[in-house]
From TrEMBL:
Residues 56-145 form the Rhamnogalacturonan I lyase beta-sheet domain. Pfam families: RGI_lyase, RGL11_C. Residues 173-622 form the Rhamnogalacturonan lyase family 11 C-terminal domain. Coiled coil: none annotated. InterPro entries: Ig-like_fold, Integrin_alpha_N, RGI_lyase, RGL11, RGL11_C. This is Rhamnogalacturonan I lyase beta-sheet domain-containing protein. It comes from Actinoplanes xinjiangensis.
Length: 629
C-alpha cells in the first residue's frame, strides 16, 4: 500500500481532522463484508491508470442494435461498443429485407462511430439489421437482430407493447432473461399498486400485487408496501448475484402477492422486508427483515439503488425514512448482499441527531477513485463500509432538491459536486464542492430565503472547459464561477440533461422537449431550439413532467428516454435518429453511470465518471469484468 493511499479508516480520520468533523461510530452496525476477489482484471488501455487488483462485475451486454427511420429514405442503425471491446474492433452492418438472405451494407469496415445510415432499404417491407464485429480482419459472431416494421413511421422511436393497466410513473431496466439486452419492469399507480415485467420485445412475464398496505399512497407517511410516491421508490433492478440475469429488489410488507402467486404474510402490517425476486418469474428468491430501529414511528418509505461497495460485487443500498410525530425524520441506510439463495444485511447507518442533510436523491458513485463506491446525499457521503466520510452540514448546507456528482472540471483532480438548496436560512442558493473531500469551492448566497427547486450540470457551452451548472440564479462555468451568459433570463430551464445528437455536448430534456441551448444565440428558457417534441409521437409525461426512465439502453453511447402513451399500453422509447462520428463505449458499462440507472428519487441526469463534453479526451477503459451469459 502506497503512502498516497493510507488505509480507509486512517483516511477517514485524516479527512475528519482536516474538515473539523466528528466521525461517529455508535450509530453504525457493521456486518462482515465479503472479501474482494483476488483475480486480476482485464488489460487496460495504455492511457488508463493502473487497474485495481480486481474488477467490478458488470452485465455482459449484447450489441443493442436498434434501427429507426431518420428520413423518408434513410434508416439510422446504431449499436453498442462494449466496455471491454478491443481498441481496434470494427463492424460490418447486415440487412435482411422481407426475410431474404442478409446483405452487407458497408463497403469498408466501420471503425468510427457505432452507427450507420442505410439509404438503400425497401421500406415497404420488413428490414432486419444486425452487426458483426471485425477483429484483425476476421468477422466475429453476429449480434442479435432488430427488425424495422414495413412502412414504419419516420420517427426516433421504438414502441414496446404493454398490457392494459393503470398509470405508470417509473420504468427500470435490466437483463431479466440473460440474452444481453435490457428488459423492462414498471409500476402501476393503481390502488393497490403493482409492478409488471416485460421482455425487451414486450412479452409479458409477470406481475406483483403490492397488496392492501400499498393503498395509502401519502408520499411522506404512506403504507408499508407503498412504492413510487414523492421522492421514494422501493424498487430497483440489477443482477445482484452476478449470474447473468437481473433480479428485482423490493421493499415489501404483509399482503404482497408475488409473481408466482404466493402471498407474503406477517402479523405486523408496519414491519417491512427486503425481497429479491427472480427476474423471469417474479417469484421470491430471498427475503430479510428491515431493521426495526424506527418501527415505533411507523413504516419507512424507501429509495433503492445498487453500487459496488467493495469494488467487485454489487450491493443493494436502501435509503429509508419515516416521520417522528409531526416533526423531524428518522433516516436509516442499509446495505445488502444477495448470494443467489439469501439476502444478508452488510451494515446499517442511523443518522440520529447528527448534522447530515439529506434531500430527494441519492447517488452511488466512487468519489475518491479507489474503485469502491460511496453513497452520496445532498449534504453528506458514506463510505462503502457504512461509515461517515464527510458532512457538508458544518459548511452551511441544509436540505435541497437536486445535486450532481461528475467530472465537472476536466482540469481538476477527482470528481466535483453541485447542489441547490431549499429554504436555507443563510440565503445559500447553490454550491460547488470537491466530491472526494467535501470541501466547498464556491457558493452563491442571495438575500432572503428561497426554494431552489431545480439544478443542472452539463457541458452546454464549449467556450470554457468543463461543465456549466445552473439553477434559477444564472448559468455558470463551474470551474471559474463566472456567468456563461450574463443575462440570467437567457439561461435554459434546469430540468434534465441528455446526450442525443452527434456531438459530445449535452442536450436538454424539459417537459417533453429535447432541446439544444445555443451559447452564441441564447434565448429564454421557453424558446430554446427544439429537436424533438415527444407529444408529437403520442408520449405523455409522468412524474414532475418527466419520462419514466432515461439512460443508455439501446444503440451507441447516446441516451434513450422512455415514456408511455396516454392509454398506458405502450412504452414509447425515444432513441436518436442523428448520425455521429463519436466513438465511445456504452455508458451502461461505465460504473458511475450504471449505478445511476438503478436510482430514482426526483429524477436527475446520470453522469459518467470521466469528462464527457467538448474537446474531451478518450476515456480510460473501465476496470470491469462481465457476468456469464
Amino acid at each position: 500500500m502506497s503512502a498516497a493511499h493510507p488505509p480507509r479508516r486512517l483516511r477517514i480520520r485524516l479527512l475528519a481532522g482536516a474538515l473539523g468533523l466528528l466521525i461517529p461510530t455508535a450509530a453504525i452496525v457493521i456486518a462482515t463484508l465479503p472479501s474482494a476477489a483476488s483475480t486480476v482484471g482485464p488489460a487496460v488501455a495504455a492511457a488508463a491508470p493502473a487497474p485495481l487488483a480486481a474488477a467490478r462485475t458488470m452485465e455482459s451486454l449484447g450489441r443493442g442494435v436498434v434501427a429507426v427511420r431518420s428520413s423518408t429514405t434513410g434508416v439510422l442503425v446504431s449499436w453498442r461498443l462494449l466496455g471491454l471491446d478491443p481498441a481496434g474492433v470494427g463492424f460490418n452492418v447486415y440487412r435482411s429485407t422481407g426475410g431474404a438472405a442478409e446483405v452487407r451494407l458497408n463497403a469498408a469496415v466501420l471503425t468510427g462511430g457505432t452507427n450507420f445510415t442505410d439509404t438503400t432499404a425497401n421500406l415497404t417491407q420488413t428490414n432486419t439489421y444486425r452487426v458483426r464485429p471485425v477483429l484483425n480482419g476476421a468477422e466475429q459472431a453476429p449480434s442479435g437482430a432488430f427488425t424495422l416494421k414495413a412502412n414504419n413511421a419516420v420517427e426516433p422511436v421504438v414502441r414496446v407493447p404493454l398490457r392494459a393497466g393503470g398509470a405508470v410513473k417509473f420504468v427500470w431496466t435490466g437483463d431479466l432473461d440473460g440474452d444481453g439486452e435490457y428488459d423492462y419492469v414498471l409500476d402501476r399507480q393503481t390502488s393497490p399498486q403493482s409492478i409488471e415485467a416485460y421482455r425487451s420485445n414486450g412479452q409479458f412475464l409477470w406481475s406483483v400485487d403490492m397488496g392492501p398496505n400499498s393503498i395509502d399512497q401519502d408520499n411522506i407517511e404512506g403504507g408499508s408496501a407503498t412504492i413510487d410516491v414523492g421522492h421514494n421508490d422501493g424498487v430497483t433492478v440489477y443482477d445482484l448475484d452476478s449470474d447473468g440475469r437481473a433480479e428485482v429488489a423490493l421493499r415489501i410488507a404483509d399482503g404482497v402477492r408475488f409473481g408466482n402467486g404466493t402471498t407474503f404474510g406477517n402479523a405486523d402490517d408496519n414491519r417491512q422486508f427486503i425481497a429479491i425476486l427472480d427476474g423471469l418469474t417474479g417469484a421470491p428468491r430471498a427475503t430479510a427483515a428491515v431493521p426495526a430501529d424506527y418501527l415505533a414511528d411507523g413504516p419507512m418509505m424507501a429509495r433503492l439503488g445498487v453500487g459496488h461497495l467493495d469494488g467487485v460485487n454489487p450491493s443493494l443500498v436502501a435509503y429509508m425514512k419515516n416521520r417522528v410525530g409531526n416533526g423531524g425524520f428518522n433516516l436509516m441506510f442499509t446495505a445488502w448482499r444477495f448470494t443467489g439463495s439469501a439476502v444478508t444485511m452488510q451494515w446499517k447507518f442511523l443518522r440520529g441527531n447528527q448534522d447530515l442533510p439529506d434531500g430527494h436523491n441519492t447517488r452511488i458513485i466512487d468519489v475518491d477513485g479507489d474503485g469502491r463506491d460511496e453513497i452520496a446525499e445532498i449534504g453528506f457521503v458514506l463510505n462503502g463500509d457504512g461509515r461517515l466520510r464527510y458532512s457538508l452540514g458544518p459548511q452551511g448546507v441544509v436540505h435541497g432538491d437536486r445535486f450532481h456528482i461528475a467530472k465537472i472540471d476536466p482540469n481538476r483532480a477527482g470528481l466535483q459536486g453541485y447542489g441547490v438548496q431549499q429554504d436555507n436560512p443563510s440565503g445559500l442558493r447553490e454550491y460547488y464542492y470537491d466530491a472526494g473531500t467535501g470541501q466547498i469551492i464556491w457558493k452563491h448566497i442571495e438575500s432572503g430565503v428561497g426554494d431552489v427547486g431545480r439544478g443542472m450540470a452539463g457541458d452546454i457551452d464549449p467556450r470554457t472547459p468543463g461543465y456549466e451548472v445552473w439553477s434559477f440564479s444564472g448559468l455558470y462555468h463551474a470551474a471559474t464561477n463566472r456567468l456563461a451568459e450574463p443575462n440570467r433570463t437567457l439561461a435554459p430551464w434546469p430540468q434534465l440533461g441528455l446526450w442525443w445528437d452527434g456531438d459530445t455536448m449535452m442536450e436538454l430534456l424539459n417537459a417533453g422537449k429535447i432541446e439544444k441551448w445555443n451559447p452564441a444565440a441564447p434565448t429564454t428558457s421557453g424558446s430554446v431550439p427544439r429537436l424533438v417534441s415527444t407529444w408529437n409521437f403520442g408520449a405523455v409525461t409522468a412524474a414532475q413532467s418527466g419520462p419514466t426512465f432515461s439512460g443508455d439502453i439501446l444503440g451507441d453511447w447516446r441516451e434513450e428516454v422512455v415514456y408511455t402513451n396516454a392509454a398506458f399500453n405502450e412504452l414509447i422509447i425515444f432513441t436518436t435518429n442523428v448520425p455521429s462520428g463519436t466513438r465511445l463505449y456504452t455508458l451502461a458499462h461505465n460504473p458511475a453511470y450504471r449505478n445511476a440507472m438503478t436510482l430514482k428519487g426526483y429524477m436527475q441526469s446520470h453522469h459518467v465518471d470521466y469528462f464527457l463534453g467538448a474537446n474531451m479526451t478518450a476515456p480510460p477503459r473501465p476496470n470491469i469484468s462481465y457476468t456469464p451469459r
